[in-house]
Amino acid sequence: MGDRLADLATVADRLETEPWWKDAVFYQIYPRSFADSNGDGVGDLGGVRDKLGYLELLGIDAIWLSPVMRSPMADHGYDVSDPRAIDPLFGDLDVMDALIEEAHARDIKVTMDLVPNHTSDQHPWFVAALAAAPGSPERARYIFRDGTGPDGGEPPNNWPSIFGGPAWTRVRESDGSLGQWYLHIFTAEQPDLNWDNPEVFEDLTKTLRFWLDRGVDGFRIDVAHGMAKPAGLPDMNLELNALMRNDDDDPRFNNDAVHTIHRGIRKVMDEYEHSTTVGEIWVQDNEKFSEYIRPDELHLGFNFRLAEAAFDAVAIRDAVSNSLDAVSRVDGTPTWTLSNHDVVREVTRYGGGKRGTARARAMILLELALPGAVFVYNGAELGLPNADLPDSALQDPVWERSDHTERGRDGCRVPLPWEGSTPPFGFSTSADTWLPMPAEWASLTVEEQLEDVDSMLSLYRSAFELRALRPEFAGPGLDWYGSPPGCLAFRRRGGLICALNATDVPIPLPPGELLMSSAPVVDGQLPADAAAWLV
């Protein structure tokens, strides 16, 4: 008993001295798909509020809400028409305020998406820009340019949209003639802001303070490596262009001036004690990545290496090593994620079926054993696979803009199954959910898994609890163990050992007392596609 109390005291001391976000478990809520409180088939903030008890039981530290700001929903909320209002689809400011208050009462922080790279084409600023003349102050808030070629009929440069098609759209001027072009790295309904214009940053500071003053604990910054554009907007090399991807030499992203923007954001955040930012940073080079999380920029930066790694010991070790190297250059905090609203769910990504599930169970133990902050996408704790949706159900703009060659991200955005044996599984009182729910998810509902000690949900709950309470998870670094081919093992400085068997046959466990495993250990042998914690 004395040793246990000493362990808890050690953990308490660590929590008091470190910012809360340094080792937090963030739970990403895709609001459309989490829980529907009003029966319209679309999840909302009332649904999130109703499920706070579940989130407390799960054991997470913070929620990250994907966009709930006012939006025409051309890209499901990432096209914001009013950044200081809640879209009626999700509720209103009163519901948001109540959600924040009740989450805090349960010791759950609330972070929300911020979309600074672009606005909706229905934002008042852009409406004014279309009505104004070329060279006007209204157009100077966005990136308008004259076209090239005869009569300006060609785009200003060769940039493609991340979602497919050109990144430029030509407008009709007030006299009805074809006129200038505007830049949109994403859909045409998402015009890019001109961050060289001080009005743009001034407006963002209003948005930051609006939500922070309401009690929001921080922001996930969408496209945090975007915003700044290179002088002259030069053409890009299209040889490596791909939908939903960019490389480190892509002039659309990762321009040096973006760091000035982040330093400005950090100054505002520092006015609010304990607030945090995490940036979506699709940058591979470790040195360039580290620049985003310097002490005067972002608190955290999403590193997607682990989500992109195959279930292979060499690939996973490389992802972990590079992630740790990137943050160590600036004494930063690593972040880890296996999935989100843009990524194929891990069960499917690792092979699907029983094997994909076994590997997903192993990988959550590996992820939680690593130092730093962890981000879990809603439904991962249920072991949900990607849903195989009919073409007629697809809504992602990628589907239309790619001329139906890319199915997009809808398969990982299907609503969560809560209870019952048939769709909509308690997600809504309406069977007409915004994306159809697979009937075969009956065995994956929260209700089915809560009392099953061997379920994915029980694995997550137990793992979260151990990670929060055990002192062996302390310390910023790790040391690699020798391990059989196709396997890996590391030791946290606090004493935790994590072993992963990515082979097809059982392997002996490293020495130590078994704390937890993703599959039953028999005679000291860790099964194939499994992971274990030892102390």
From TrEMBL:
GO molecular function: hydrolase activity
Residues annotated as domain Glycosyl hydrolase family 13 catalytic: 28-413
InterPro entries, A to Z: GH, GH13_cat_dom, O16G_dom_2
Listed Pfam families: Alpha-amylase (PF00128)
Keyword annotations: Hydrolase
Residues in coiled coil: none
UniProt family annotation: Belongs to the glycosyl hydrolase 13 family.
Protein name: Alpha-amylase family glycosyl hydrolase
